[in-house]
Structure formats: structure tokens, C-alpha cells
Amino acid sequence: MMRSLQSRLVVTLCACALGLAIVAGVVSYAAAFREAYRFQDDQLLQLAALVDTRNLAGADHAMHGLPIQDHDYRLTVQRLGGTFPVTLSDGFHTVNTGDHTWRAFVRTIGPDLRIVVAQPTEGRNEIARNSGLRTALPIVGLVPLFIAAIVLTVRRAWRPVQQLAAEVDKRRDTDLRGLDTQGAPTEIEPFIVSINRLLSRLDKALDEQRRFVADAAHELRSPVTALVIQSENLDRALAPTALDTETRNRLTKLKSGLHRTRTLIEQLLTLARAQSAPSVPATPLTLLPAVHEALEDVFVLADRKQLVLDLVDATSSTPGRSQLRVAGSKRDIVTLLGNIVGNAVRYTPAGGTVSVRLSATGSDVVIDVIDSGPGIDADKRERVFDAFYRATEYREPREHGGEGTGLGLAIVRAIVDRLDGQVTLTDARPETPRGLHVRVTLPNPDAHAGAGRTAAQAPHSTPSSNA
């Protein structure tokens, strides 16, 4: 059974059109056949009325002298008693004489004179069949046009549903606005209303969940911070020789766990802010200062691992070109880049490189972060944007980098979605280690003001900061 309503409707309508066309063709053929047969009978009747009974032999000879190639079409006029028996009554008869079957009309002229006007039925039937076919064929020939019209009409009627499905597919997973019912077919409008109610309930549930996470993280931040401070004070208050080695190790692990818990709480708060912040038009922001601030936050970690932290502005080599700008707040951009570059620094082995490249293409600003770490397999690249998911077997934390929280890329996706941008992950190079290439594309607010951006020129490296 076909699951597609559109296909089912097309097949049903086409079957109905074909069935009706067959019935109409048969009825038209039968009607035309009978009409042609009746017309030929009328010809026999009229000919019998016009026959000159004084010279029947001459009339019959004249009939046979007509320029007709097929003998099945010839008429004969003669007295009864020869080919046709005298027992025939007046009127129409179908007579079989052995060689032919005749359609005959018998007329009594006088007491001793009865005539017959006859024609072979082979010719008559062929004429009637041709007449019926000529009547039925146009109906049969229009069937493909009927089917084509049905298919086009059904597809046109189904277009609003397809447009609605395309609109839903293009939405981001964070866009839970109700679907527009204006212009939607009446039959599916109740379905759209039900979906809108479901989206409203889902949006409310997700909002409550985000508020709960934010409230819980906020409530936990103060006591955890207090515990971190107390552990630091305890460590400073105790002399190095006051504790044995095992107790000292336990204190170190306690401090590390408290620091990790505080980092996780801060990331949870950042994620909650990124997901719940309203999507309002932002003032255009110059990108480069925000990039510098984000790099300063990870510079110490990069220096500890002896990484080369490289910043490349591909637009700075063009004289007179304005600085790149994006539509977003500085905190969003710093948080966005801080998480991407922080992940790159954390998962890149000591002595590696992390490059940040800024460029413009068309109406977009492009930020590329490329590292020399182990990379992420293609089947894991979409899942790493989920909260708390970490492809640890591919990007293990390094000795100097600490342990991640699994929230960095979830925060990145939330901010990029709110800024109406895109983020993609690819391999930095084909050979091992593959590295990771993170590309963030954000709308350029100056592109719509006439300052169109061209593709990036050959990269011009600013002096690399050898961390």
C-alpha cells in the first residue's frame, strides 16, 4: 500500500479518468456504430423509393457501373425471386446468400412487382466501425492529457505542504516559533495548529529546563567558590612538611576537583545565557579587538604548552579596507572564540600550532581556527556540539591543558545560531595528525550598507606570537 497521499491521490484520479474514458469511448463507439447503421438503412430506403421500376435491369447495371473498387460497398436493385427469395416480407432484412450476407430492403410496387435494394454487410459494418472509431478515438487520445492535467493539478495543490516542510527543514533546532497558517490549505490547518501547540509546550519545557540549569549553577557557584578558597587557604596554611605524601596528594586532588567543578558551573551559566539570550538586532562590532581579548585569555595555557599561537588578518593587507565587523555583542564574540581557541589549545600536543584567520567572503565574515591536534572523526563532528559529549578517544586532554567540561562547542553552537551564522568542522590536513579546522561564518552588517566584501586576498600574517 502506498504511503504517499499525493501518489495515492494521483493514482486514484488517473484510474477514475481512465475508467471513465473507457466507458465513454465504448458508449460513443456503440452510439456512432448504430447511427452509421441507421443512416445506411435510410439510404437503402430512399434508394428503393427513387428506383425507376420500368427498367430494373438498367438500374441494377447502373449501380454496378459506379466507380467503386471494393465490391463490399456496391448496391444491387432487383426483383425478388432471384438471389433473394420471394418469401421476404416488406421492410429490412439481413439475408445470407452463401457468398455474402446482405442488408436488404424489400418494397412492394404492385401486385406482381416486388423489388429489393440490398448491400453487403461487410462494407456496411466497416463503415459503421470506422465511424464509431473516429468518434471514440478523440476521447481515448485525450486520456494522457487528462492524466497529465491530474498530475500537475495534484502537485500544484500539494505545493503548500511541500513549502511548509521545506520551511521546517531550514529551521535551526533552537527555532521553536509557531508555523504560519496564512495561505495554508484548510485541510492541513488543524494539523499546523496542533504542531504550533506542541512547539509552544516544547519551548516552555526547554525554557524551564534552561532556567533550572542556570538557577542550579548560580546557587552552586557561591559555595563551590568558597570551597575553592578554603582549600587554597588550607594549602597555604599548612607547611610543606606538615602533611605526609599521601595526604598532600589527596589535598591536591581535592583542589583540582573543586577547580574543575567551578569551571563546569561557569560553563553551565554561560551555556544558559547563550541559549536564553533574546535574538535582537545587535550593534555592529569591530571584530579584531574581541579576537585579541579572547586570545589573551588562552595565552597563558598556550605558553605553558609551548604552542605557536598565530593570528592572521587576511583583510589588513588591502589599503583603505575597513576593519571586519560583525553584528553581535563583544561578550558573545569573546565567549565564542574563547571556547574554540581554548579547545584547540587544550587538545593540541605540546609544541604544536594553533592559527586564527580572519577573512571576508561575499556578505559574510569568516573566522577559521586551525590546530595541529588529533582531529575529530567525521561521524563524531555533529555530536560534539551536544552538551557534555566529548570524543575523548580522539582528542584526549593533554597534561598541561587540564580536562574539558564538554560544554565548549555546545556554547559555540548556541551563540552562532543566535547570531544567524554557521559553524563547521573539517580536517585541517589529510595526513595524521589530521588536526581540526573550525570555521565560523557570521553575517557582515556592512555588506547590506553598500560595503560589499570580496573574497579574501592572499593571507598576510601578522607577527606570530610564539607562546
From TrEMBL:
CDD domains: HATPase, HisKA. GO terms for cellular component: plasma membrane. It is an enzyme of class 2 (transferase). Keywords: Kinase, Membrane, Phosphoprotein, Transferase, Transmembrane, Transmembrane helix, Two-component regulatory system. It comes from the Bacteria. It is a multi-pass membrane protein. Its main location: membrane. It catalyses: ATP + protein L-histidine = ADP + protein N-phospho-L-histidine. Residues 447-458 have a biased composition (Low complexity). It is found in: Membrane. The chain crosses the membrane at residues 135-154. Residues 442-467 are annotated as: Disordered. Its EC number is 2.7.13.3. Residues 155-207 form the HAMP domain. PANTHER family: SENSOR HISTIDINE KINASE CUSS, SENSOR HISTIDINE KINASE YKOH. This is histidine kinase. It comes from Pandoraea faecigallinarum.
